Each structure stands twice: as C-alpha cells, then as structure tokens.
Amino acid sequence: MGEATxxxxxxxxxxxxxxxxxxxxxxxxxxxxxxxxxxxxxGTGQDVAGSVKGxxxxxx
Length: 60
Fold this sequence. Notes:
The chain is mainly α. 85% of the residues lie in helices and 0% in strands. The chain contains two helices and no strands. Helix 1 packs antiparallel against helix 2 (30-56).
C-alpha cells in the first residue's frame, strides 16, 4: 500500500474509533468505548506508517 492509502485508512479508523468511543461513553458501554480507543490507536499507527512511506518512498 502507498502513503495515500495508509493515510486514508488511518483517517477512517480514527473517525470510526472516535464515533465508537463517543457512543460507548453516551450509552455507558465500556466495551464499545474501549473498541473505539483501540481503533483510534490503529489509525494512528497507519498514519505513522504512511508518513514513513512518504519519507522513504513506497519501498518501506
């Protein structure tokens, strides 16, 4: 995957995770809230991977 693909997936995971976390907090659902936080972390990792690919090219 290229830099743009990683960053796009990262944005999607961050948004979806944020929504899950907010819904989990609003409904007092700790499992959903934790899933949301984990998905946001996954998105952050993908964003970093995309940035590294951007810096070094898609060879990484």
